[in-house]
Design brief:
The protein is an all-alpha fold. It is 72% helix and 0% strand.
Length: 185
């Protein structure tokens, strides 16, 4: 069971890619992962958010005792897993707006996403600095910078917003998955 929940974040990304691939009118270059809730089978994306978020929170519960890292960096990585799982669940309950539409729920969705990415980037960099010099530290600096600059790219390069978001989210998903093995019991 633990092996399944370790890959829940990756499962989220795979499900999103497959749903986008089979949805006519969806443009992964421009459209966000969250906008898949507005395609014909959008309820699958909502379920994807909530189920993968709950599985990731289950993973965080399993990893509540750390053994693969220093205590400070382990706590920070554990917080990252919790934040990622909780944000997926919340994003599932607060769907994004349709293109050209602005609602309070959509604004909440955007705020959750931005806050989650900022927290993840900060945690990645904090764990990196507590583990210098090491391979994990170098990876986390790169991943943290991808997360931080990915938000800027989404804001200032809208014609590639979907692709930029996938790199950003993929980077966070990889960090959460690597952390789950790094913190193994």
């Amino acid at each position: 069971m633990v092996w399944i929940i370790r890959f829940a974040p990756i499962l989220f990304l795979v499900n999103s890619l497959l749903l986008g691939f089979f949805s006519s009118g969806y443009n992964p270059q421009r459209n966000s992962i969250s906008s898949l809730v507005h395609v014909r089978l959008g309820y699958l994306q909502t379920a994807n958010f909530v189920l993968c978020g709950l599985l990731t929170l289950g993973l965080a519960y399993y990893l509540k005792e750390y053994s693969g890292a220093t205590i400070n960096s382990a706590r920070l990585a554990h917080i990252g897993i919790i934040v990622f799982g909780a944000s997926l669940v919340l994003l599932g309950f607060f769907p994004t707006d349709k293109p050209g539409q602005t609602t309070a729920i959509g604004q909440i969705h955007g705020a959750i996403f931005i806050l989650s990415v900022f927290i993840q980037a900060g945690l990645q960099l904090a764990v990196a600095f507590t583990n210098f010099p090491s391979a994990i530290a170098i990876y986390l600096v790169i991943s943290g910078l991808i997360s931080a600059f990915g938000l800027l790219g989404m804001a200032y390069v809208p014609e590639f917003r979907g692709y930029i978001q996938r790199v950003l989210v993929g980077s966070i998903i990889l960090w959460v998955t690597i952390s789950s093995f790094w913190l193994r019991k």
